[in-house]
Amino acid sequence: MANHFVDDQALDEKSLADAIIDHSAIRKEKLIKLIEKTGGSGWIVSNEQIQSAQEIAKENTGIIISTNSALSVAGLMQAVYTSKSWKGSVVCIICGD
C-alpha cells in the first residue's frame, strides 16, 4: 500500500522486519482515503534505514529496539528528510528487541 504514496521505490531485498503483513489488503482503498484525508503518507523502508533507525534509537535513548519498531522510526526519518510537516506531537510506537 505504501507504493500508492511513494514513487516506484519497491525494494527487492527481504526485509529485516517481520511485522504482520496484510497481503490481501481487503481494506486498501478505505485506508488510502483515510490516510489522504488526514494528510498522512506511506513509506517503503530499506534494511539499511531499519538498521540506521535502530542505531539512532540506541544512541539517543539507550534502548535497543526491534526491527519492527524501527519501521516507525525510519518512516519518521523519511518524513523529516522529505520536508513533510505537521503540527502537534509525533508518536513512534517502539518495543525492545
What does this structure look like?
- It is a single chain.
- Helix content is 41%, strand content 0%.
- It is globular.
- The model has no long low-confidence stretch (mean pLDDT 83).
- The protein is built from 3 helices and no strands.
- With 97 residues, the protein is an all-alpha fold.
- It has one domain.
Concise description?
With 97 residues, this protein is mainly alpha-helical. The chain has one domain. It has helices at 28-37, 47-61, 67-81.
Summary tags:
97 residues, single chain, globular, mainly alpha, 3 helices
Tell me the β content.
Answer: under 5%
Reading the helices and strands in chain order gives HHH
- Shape category: globular
Contiguous low-pLDDT stretches (5 residues minimum) are none
* Total individual domains: 1
Structural class: mainly alpha
Question: Considering DSSP H and I runs of 4 or more, what fraction of the residues is helical?
Answer: 40-55%
Global mean pLDDT: 83
Radius of gyration: 14 Å
The count of DSSP E runs of length 2 or more, i.e. the number of strands, is 0
Total helices: the number is 3
Major pleated sheet: none
Distance between the termini: 26 Å
SSE layout and pairings?
Blueprint lengths: L27 H10 L9 H15 L5 H15 L16
Helix pairs in contact: 2-3
